[in-house]
Amino acid sequence: MTNIEPLKELLRIPSVSTVHQGIEECAEKVKEFLEEAGFETQIIETKGHPVVFGEKKGKTDKTLMFYDHYDVQPPDPLDEWESPPFEPEVRNNRLYARGVADNKGNLMARLEAVKSFDELPVTIKFVVEGEEEMGSPHLEGFVNDNKDLLKADGCIWEAGYKDVAGRPTMFLGAKGLCYVEFRVKGANRDLHSASAVIVESPVWRLVRALTSLKDENERILIEGFYDDVNPPDKEELDLVDTIPYNGDLTKKILGIDKFLLDISDKEAVSRILYASSCNICGIHAGYTGKGSKTVLPCKAMAKVDFRLVPDQDPEKVFNLLKAHLKKHGYSDIEVESMGPLWPAKTSFKERFVTVVKESMDAVYDKEAVVYPTMSGSGPMWLFTNVLNIPTVSIGVGDAESRAHSPNESINLTDYEEGTQVIKELINRF
Amino acid sequence: MTNIEPLKELLRIPSVSTVHQGIEECAEKVKEFLEEAGFETQIIETKGHPVVFGEKKGKTDKTLMFYDHYDVQPPDPLDEWESPPFEPEVRNNRLYARGVADNKGNLMARLEAVKSFDELPVTIKFVVEGEEEMGSPHLEGFVNDNKDLLKADGCIWEAGYKDVAGRPTMFLGAKGLCYVEFRVKGANRDLHSASAVIVESPVWRLVRALTSLKDENERILIEGFYDDVNPPDKEELDLVDTIPYNGDLTKKILGIDKFLLDISDKEAVSRILYASSCNICGIHAGYTGKGSKTVLPCKAMAKVDFRLVPDQDPEKVFNLLKAHLKKHGYSDIEVESMGPLWPAKTSFKERFVTVVKESMDAVYDKEAVVYPTMSGSGPMWLFTNVLNIPTVSIGVGDAESRAHSPNESINLTDYEEGTQVIKELINRF
Predict the structure, then answer these.
(1) Which of A151, A212, B184, B379 has a C-alpha 20 to 30 A away from that of B238?
(2) pLDDT of B427
(3) Which residues of chain A have pLDDT under 50?
(4) CATH code of the region B5-175+343-428
(5) Mutation test of the interface with chain B: which of A213, A248, A280, choosing the one with the most B Cβ atoms within 10 A?
């Protein structure tokens, strides 16, 4: 069995990037683990949190890279955790802790695999950043400044999850992301709500502005939003048709009766891979405590994320959003863009994709399912579009892993097998 | 000068009814003050917070009643207070504390006035409740159970404010209130926001449901909402035409460039007195902290108040709202009604109104302005409609009093003069 103690040690560090918690400590710990495994290691400063870089030479210069991140999502709501988020606990062969699936478990499974080689057949590089959960705002600068250091022939991306039927998955792309905070101001202070007959409410303005962004069929109403969408070709859609998907089981796990818009399983897969979205991550204004308070709030805010598909550009989308707000009379609404991410995609015809699949199929009892892209986002475009490295995302999570949610966990058997897959890949690469 | 020490003592008790804080202590303190002033006093239990009742016989049975409340609004946002809300502080001849304007300052000014009489010419009754800031949910039961005890020939209502030009005001009515909490549920947990392409968002449902309630011209779109509105007659509108109103000064104080819908001063007065409203007191969902968190929240909530005018019925409005939500496909949204209040109005032709005005004009250097009703709400309808007592609201606040907001205060000269007015009224009644 793979030793899980180093992983537990890493999970105990509450490296919540969005509140700048435990960052230096966690970066140092990753560096220490890499050095113990014989890597030449550097902590490379950025304008934000540092990147840990490690390189270990193999028999050839052919280079396999691992992209991971040592930061995690905030653990709240805390009261919904069955065990404390930063005190890893094993229950029923699952390891529970914030970040265990996304992405510390993957980082450590990869490192354990590398450690099992007395002599590496290929060169291995680790790039472990500390701002992925904030939208990787400084990784672009890091990549542009270190292009030589970052040369590689294939890259294994941060995370992956078995599907609801227990099939391992491979993801060959990621959506882009345009994350925006909206802020609206009203009077110079909260007022008695009797004033609402003569004083405009920033809450109503925010609610109406949000409503103007999307219709009831999920069509985003920002002018020009869909202009750059580059839909998949027939060959890719044929591959998508082979993806098995158990919608009923997904719905059961999520506790919902039907999918959004009551779509079929096939449409769900299509939307997961190819639909842009506009989601409200958070909204707040006024009094939200117990009982009633009759107040006209003086400010309101919301956080909204747009997921983007090839070839949408998050900076262009942000500008289109500003134009939309202006056009609809909401130019007083302040919008701030946070960490834009571009969509990324590696062709399923790449040899690297085939090798990764063979490595997985050698370990798992179920055949790996190839997804031409994924529903989530990340800085993968820096590796595919800027560094030109074929990139595939796989990992040790499953359909119960609850990434970004309370009670995040992985199955320890998946951790063991995920380590084996990386060993196979290093040998076959 | 009127002694302000008893008032400060009362203000130090944080009697925030909506969180059931300091209630018994404050009721006991009011009882103690009334007893010290020679009142026969009882603490009358209700299904909620108790009512303090006091009666002091005068030379005649003619009875003047004071309605007040010993509870206050929550003090938050706490960080916006210049001095702690429950540590009364005098700065520039103003007394600052939560509840000083709404309504402990009025209660104590009235009591100080009564105390100045060796022998009262009329009988005085005090009704001091502890749930006004929660919408007085149990006062109706109290009034129905104690109709004999509550007989009176005129009632002075809880609060009043000088206008922006420093003119004292009299309010002869109050709006009704239908306060509703909305709760929407989605998946069984918060999800990674990548799922937003296939899982319906309770936040979007809430935002859309709210948007469906009102159009951009402030017209409430709930079917039947306006059916029972009984508009004022010509004589009353002529009275309203005499009300002076300095819109520019109001806007300056509130820090706004223009009124809602860019209305004129005259329209503002009309809306203050006669417009129903639908206001979002608070809204919350998901992550609203620093930075970005990409989450699809599993629940969303909002608190909404509808202000109502004669003869709208808050229970009927709540039922119409439920029908509206059902009709628009939002029957899954849970709505809870909190403390309905009916609209109330005393005719400006009543003799009691004239006597109150004469008492005010005898004290203040500016003539009192008569408002046929007020923008705020309260349980006044129990006194006007159920007990049939002519009721007028006056008080010691001014345009800077910031009731319900941080840094609530009164001018100490207004406190002094407010006490004089009550003395005049007791003599003239």
Answers:
(1) B379
(2) 97
(3) none
(4) 3.40.630.10
(5) A280
